Amino acid sequence: MKELNPFITKGYVSKDLFCNRETELKILENNFNNNIDTTLISPRRMGKTGLIYRFFDLLNNKNGDFITIYADIFSSRSLEDFIKLLAEAILHYYPEKTFFGRKFLQIIKGFRPLISYDGITGEPQVSITYQTPQEKELTLRGLFDFFERQDKRVMLAIDEFQQITEYPEKNAEALLRTYIQQLNNVNFIFSGSKTTLMLDIFSNSKRPFFSMTQYLSLKKIDRKTYCDFIVRKFEENKRTIDDSTVNFILDWTLSHTYYTQVLCNRVFSSGRKNVDIQCAKKACAEILQQNEEIYLQYRQLLTAGQWNFLIAIAREERVTQLTAQNFLSKYGIGTPANARRLSKALIDKDLLLSESTVDSVYYQVYDVFFMRWLQEIYSFNFRKPSPESHS
Ligand SMILES: Nc1ncnc2c1ncn2[C@@H]1O[C@H](COP(=O)(O)OP(=O)(O)OP(=O)(O)O)[C@@H](O)[C@H]1O
Ligand SMILES: [Mg+2]
Fold first, then answer.
1. Could you tell me the distance, in angstroms and rounded to a whole number, from the CA of residue 71 to the centre of ligand 1?
2. Of the residues 36, 279, 313, 340, which has the fewest C-beta atoms closer than 10 A?
């Protein structure tokens, strides 16, 4: 039988292939048991979605009987899309042939939905036509009421929740809050990676969701724990990897979950019985080479000043003082105002990450592989740009 790669690079497979997160799981479980909703925040690819699935797995393996539903609303552009994605998520987890799925279909019949199944994936597709905005609100209310009436408790995770700020319906947030607040049988995890937007939704006293939830900020997996996990996964597959190689991997990926998983997956796939640092370095080079096309495209999309700024940040790896004189002059960035303008543009494009710690804010290139590529390409031949290329 073909050996399975134990380093997953998408979704969630099993507890076995999931590294730790015990503290976060306890918090989620405690919140669920005490009827507290959670706001789960982290930079992209840190493991929010994985954690939600892992938590569902934990709940479903307890004796308690729960309904767990995950809805990703990233692609929603309106309240109508929100309702559609929520209905589809329900049918995904509880298809027509299940008891819960049948009950759900009976309820939504009243809204005259058109339900079809994707020819290739088999995924349910729900389409509802509304005559008036009130009908939309009624449908949404109907969905939440349905959850409320179940005799099992419901855990509903709404991923990429910041998306609701883009809906054209001005009352979307207020409406959702009104319905959600009335629910006793349903607990929520609202998760998202746009920290500023998420914090604004939940911490701005002028907004409907103010103070409604408890925050859970997902950090990097503890280094020692990740190190042990990687070694164990190799050993379980009758292979070895030495500590210095694992340390090299975690340094290179900055211990950021997704990048670590991808690199370990690549190293594992080499088939080597005894993995050494050369093997890891080869995997790094392959990853960068594979992604090069994308990085070169980024360059087309950015101004010379923005590109230069990214290189500067990559070379420093992490910058706390974007407007410090020595940083500005070392890389020919220009004035502090220029640095602020460039950083804002790059943060908006998700190319630069700004992270807050207890006592400071730091900046780094968002995509760790991209950062490593920039470091490699521009390590020797960095040229200060000419003054006109600053903008
Ligand atoms: N604890 C973990 N152990 C092993 N792999 C993990 C763990 N958490 C997440 N992963 C893997 O890391 C990758 C990134 O995780 P995930 O997609 O959950 O991140 P995310 O924070 O939801 O990202 P995004 O904000 O882009 O949606 C995925 O491939 C996932 O399978
Ligand atoms: Mg996610």
1. 16
2. 340
